Amino acid sequence: MTETITKLAKNHTLSKQEYISLINCNDKESLEYLRQKAEKQRQDIFGRDIYMRGLIEFTNYCKNDCLYCGIRRSNKKAQRYRLTKEEILDCCKNGYDLGFRTFVLQGGEDAYYTDDIIVETVREIKSQFPDCAVTLSIGEKPKESYKRYFDAGADRYLLRHETASAEHYSLLHPKDLSPENRMECLKNLKEIGFQTGCGFMVGSPYQTVENLAEDLIFIDKFKPHMVGIGPFIPHKDTPFRNEKSGTLEMTLKLLAIIRLILPKVMLPSTTALGTINPKGREMGILWGANVVMPNLSPTTVRKKYMLYDNKICTGDEAAECRFCMQKRMESIGYKVVVSRGDYPDLQK
Ligand code: SAH
Asked: Whole-prediction pTM value?
């Protein structure tokens, strides 16, 4: 396996069969070699800097019914909320004072926020915080809408592809959501000029090793600026309530592989990883991740943005999350930096 890993670190690509054998590899020494290669790759480009993104979960209304997600439309138990533009701006102000220079506006697909409202909100954030980047993560929209957000000043867009296999996609989503449209959206985002992020859940129901290899091949081809991955975690009020979570080991392995495929990619160590293991986010960094996303949402709504069970940090103030994260990164010899943290070739 060492040969395959060396080859990946050098060529940044493997065949499907080689990805499959690497994903299946459970040999401790080989995996430690993979980890070291990924950590070195990341350090060569980013040193020991870790970029922070302030996550603002501004609505949990959603018109979609994704089978895995706790805020799916048919979950009648979810207590729904929306933040006003003023509340979103307050989160940014708080975040700015804490050293955040990227704000990620994430939410369900909520028609209440028309394109006009999104545009107005992005404009206002960019005018009050001109040295900050704005990332949107609000799902599938027509190309014209994406273009309007971009022209209003949004810098980046996160839209996980969820799975590169059309067949697997149909097992995770209702019929009215199509894998073709999701992929089309990603293509449009990149064409418009967004720093674009795709990604997937690790260990989602019905996922095979072959599916994971297909996800890696997609990432390899699409060349996103950001990749978000985290373990699937069941939510008690969804059809997947009795399914198993994705594992720490598999998520770490995939983080390292993705770092080697795309050396410069912005790769978060996610909250879901911190949820399945108390040191999950630290381990993610040691396996090649270089971004953390502490929560800036008001504590009053935190518990309501429950995509999966037992989500961490739902009781903490933004400042607590910020300093907790700093301590966690310092404990492993890394430092959080006050910076927009753009993709290396696109730094402003
Ligand atoms: N509505 C937006 C934002 C989705 S929430 C969009 O469509 O892009 C962000 C991500 O959370 C999703 O893309 C999904 O990969 C992840 N997620 C949802 N439910 C999850 C669960 N049960 N376990 C782990 N991750 C989950």
From this structure: 0.98
CA atoms within 13 A on the CB side of 12: 11
CB 240 near ligand 1, within 6 Å:
no
Q: Cβ–Cβ contacts within 10 Å for residue 189, how many?
A: 26
69 in ligand 1 pocket by Cβ < 6 Å? yes
Query: Closest ligand 1 atom to the C-alpha of 108?
Result: 1
Q: Report whether residue 160 contacts ligand 1, using a CB cutoff of 6 Å.
A: yes
pLDDT value at 347 more than 70: no
- Contacts (Cβ under 8 Å, ≥6 apart) of 127: none
224 CB neighbour count, 10 Å cutoff: 24
Q: 4 CA distance to ligand 1 centroid (A)? A: 32
- Residue identifier of the C-alpha nearest atom 8 of ligand 1: 139
122 lines ligand 1 (CB under 6 A): no
Q: At what angle do helices 248-261 and 209-222 cross, to 10 degrees?
A: 30
> 190-224 pLDDT, tens per residue?
999 999 999 999 999 999 999 999 999 999 999 99
The token pair at 69 is 């997600």
Nearest-angstrom CA–CA distance, 19 and 213: 6
